[in-house]
Amino acid sequence: MKKKVLKVVAPLAFWLALWAFGAQVVGKELLLPSPAAAIQTLLTLLGEGAFWHAVAATLGRVTAGVLLGVLLGMILGVVTASWRWCDLLLSPAMKAVRTVPVVSFILLLYFWLPSGRVPVATAALMALPVVWRAARQGIAAADPLLLEAAGHYRLNLWGRVKLVYLPGAMPALCAGWENALGLAWKAGVAAEVLCQPKWAAGSALQSAKAYLDAPALFAWTAVVVALSLAMEALLHLALGPWREEGR
Questions:
Q1: How many Cβ atoms are within 10 Å of 230's Cβ, its own excluded?
Q2: Residue 244: which pLDDT band, with cuts at 50, 70 and 90?
Q3: Measured between alpha carbons, how far is 3 from 154 in angstroms, rounded to an integer?
């Protein structure tokens, strides 16, 4: 237990000390505020109802985007793994989504959707190709001998999915879901910064930048990072048994 705590505390203390030293050297809060200034701003924010409203709204948007991206990615992954002509048609589109800059999607979606929905759609688009690839590779990795045995015992579709496809695909799917969550957080908050919904962590970041409030900018950045890491940790914990046992 002590070793685990030390692994968390030691790096945090090191980077905080380095940050404090850098702030002292720079000597300008506008360029690099001290950790004390950022923490004080964060404590002030924690006492404001608007802060929690913005955090809840951002959490809701990112979560909705991830779920939508995972659902579409799983469906399209199964389709492309099952039918070659679908793979031929959809693979170029998935590769294009992966390579097009996020800001391009945000600006295009801003023409078509309300500002509050752009982060959801952007997060879903970033999660989609990652989950699609993981599902496609996971299904393709199914053991041919197990599939032959399933045919011999005349297992129905659900039996084949449960006993053959899922055990082989779960490691790839777990890794894909975790990567998708990280990308969705970055893309969703970036979309909030550009589109500025009324309640959003990204809007607060943009406001701090506009008012040259460096401590608030650092405080909100810390909030976004903490939320992202917390969600990734919860997902990693939930997927642990599936990843290790492939069940």
A1: 11
A2: low
A3: 51
Q: Is the pTM above the cut of 0.90?
A: no
For residue 127, CA distances in Å to 42, 68, 89, 158, 205 come to: 30, 8, 19, 26, 23
Which residue matches tokens 């506009």? 210
Residue 216, both tokens:
């608030």
Q: Are the C-beta atoms of 61 and 123 separated by less than 8 Å?
A: yes
Delineate the domains of the chain, giving CATH numbers in brackets.
54-245 (1.10.3720.10)
Query: CA-CA distance, 78 to 75, in Å (whole number)?
Result: 5
Mean pLDDT of 116-127: 90
Q: Cα 78 to the chain's mean position, in Å?
A: 22
Give the whole-angstrom CA distance, residue 235 versus residue 241: 11
Q: Which residues, including other chains, have CB under 8 Å from residue 42's CB and lie 6 or more apart?
A: 219, 222, 223
C-alpha distances (whole Å) from 111 to each of 23, 108, 114, 131, 148 are 41, 6, 8, 26, 51
In the block, tokens 């579409």 appear at 72
